[in-house]
Write a structure and sequence with these properties.
With 96 residues, the chain is α+β, with helices and mostly antiparallel strands. The chain has two domains: 34 residues; 61 residues, SH3 type barrels (Roll). Helix content is 48%, strand content 29%. It has two helices and five strands; from the N terminus they run H-E-E-E-E-E-H. It has a five-stranded antiparallel β-sheet, with helices on one face.
């Protein structure tokens, strides 16, 4: 009986801890593989910018006029969806 409880506990740990982490890692790898020039991204440090070029493990970000940063590709946290952001801003304007 104790053995069954141990197995159920191990399965619950796998489903609650390891599976979501694997999914998050897989999604991040897909994001990095799909980066193209012109995408707006945010880095892990909170820097927003537009992708100018993508090398093997380096991304060149245009963060302001005439300012370009070279960051590690793995430092890109997410892509900014401009259409969804504009829609949320218009919803906020209607509420006021």
């Amino acid at each position: 009986m104790d053995f069954i409880v141990l197995i159920v506990f191990g399965l619950a740990m796998y489903l609650l801890l390891f599976l979501p982490q694997q999914r998050k890692s897989r999604d991040h790898k897909r994001l990095l593989a799909s980066l193209t020039e012109g995408d707006e991204v945010v880095t892990n440090s909170g820097i927003y910018g537009f992708v100018n070029a993508v090398d093997d493990d380096v991304v060149w970000l245009d963060v302001a006029e005439g300012i370009e940063l070279r960051v590690a590709k793995s430092a890109v946290a997410s892509r900014i969806d401009v259409a969804a952001e504009a829609e949320s801003e218009s919803d906020d304007d209607e509420d006021e």
